[in-house]
Amino acid sequence: MARSVREQMVDSAIILLAKHGLEGTSFTEVLNASGAPRGSIYHHFPGGKDELIAAAIEVAGDRAVALVRSLEGRSPAEIVDGFFAMWRAVLERSQFSAGCSVLAVTAAGSTGSSDDSDGLLRAAGRVFRSWQSALAAVLAAGGVPAAAAEPFATLLIAASEGAVALSRAEQSYEPFDAVHQVLRDQAGRFPGPA
Question: What's the pLDDT tens digit per position in 10-21?
Fold first, then answer.
């Protein structure tokens, strides 16, 4: 089934955010990457760039949550492996040129002068909380004690984001693999699914 122009623009924005950050994701770049006609901009995103960016990080977030939920029923170590496999695929496909589109929004931060930029930070926060919630639920179902599931989910997100950033900077899987192994070892200490 063919994707709509709006979907193509959102997908292009996700990739551009992951590669070039918030400032490098302009409407012109999105149009060039998606092949969408210029008139599509305000037809599909009457709220402007911030509306497009909010849609992009929501879609990226939903995709990550779907992947996390697909790990339900696995052991904690397998969940760590699955989550890191998602990020490794991003690094591999982009040859170390892309990271997390949601992190790109938070790294740009708030200028303090715009309710819109604050709105994007809040949207990114909601996405990260959805990942944390999904991971905690899957980890708990996988045998991680309830009191440890949420903190471990938070650690998993923070550490994987940092591992991706280090690997991009070093153009090497070495830091990524090191962080993955430490978290996998830690996850292996939890009991498996009941």
Answer: 999 999 999 999
